[in-house]
Design goal:
single chain; 97 residues; mainly alpha; Arc Repressor Mutant, subunit A; two-stranded antiparallel ribbon; 2 strands
Length: 97
């Protein structure tokens, strides 16, 4: 009797290195570079490999930035750029809650 055919053994493919969450990446870049514009964030995120294969970085970056602003980690300046939240911003946010 012939042995039953064995299912192909699949090796785990060498995948691309895992990227940290986009929010963490954006916060890290803001800490490294300082005040940044929305376009700067999109450019850095695309270069880092967060948006490939024709994905639109604008939407993904915008959603993450707004979530981070709402969480109080960063603030949007009057000129549209983003900066780390100051101590006073954090105090105001906590009083509002």
């Amino acid at each position: 009797m012939a042995p039953a055919p064995q299912a192909e053994q699949r090796r785990p493919e060498a995948s691309a290195p895992q990227l940290p969450p986009l929010a963490d990446f954006l916060l890290r870049k803001l800490g490294e570079i300082g005040t940044m514009s929305f376009d700067d964030f999109c450019q850095h995120a695309t270069q880092e490999g967060y948006f490939t294969g024709g994905e639109n970085a604008d939407r993904g970056v915008h959603v993450e930035l707004m979530n981070i602003v709402k969480a109080g980690f960063i603030r949007q300046l009057p000129d549209g750029n983003f900066a780390r939240a100051t101590v006073m911003d954090t105090i105001r946010l906590r009083r509002a809650i």
